Amino acid sequence: MSDQKKTTDAKDESELLGLRDEIDRIDGDILQLISQRAKCAERVAEVKLKADPEHAVFYRPEREAQVLNRIMAANPGPLANEDMARLFREIMSACLAHEKPIEVAYLGPEGTFTQQATKKHFGQWVKSRPMPAIDEVFREVEAGAVQYGVVPIENSTEGVVNHTLDTFITSNIHICGEVELRIHQHLMAGPNTKRDKITRIYSHQQSLAQCRKWLDAHMPHAERIAVNSNAEAAKRVQGEWNSAAIAGELASELYDLDIIESNVEDSPDNSTRFLIIGREEVGPSGDDKTSLVVSMRNEPGALYNLLKPFKEFGVDMTRLESRPSLTGNWTYVFFIDFVGHTSEENVQKTLASLKQTAADVKVLGSYPKGVI
Ligand SMILES: C=C(O[C@@H]1C=C(C(=O)O)C=C[C@H]1O)C(=O)O
Question: Where in this chain does the record put each Chorismate mutase domain (predicted)?
Answer without folding.
Answer: 10-103
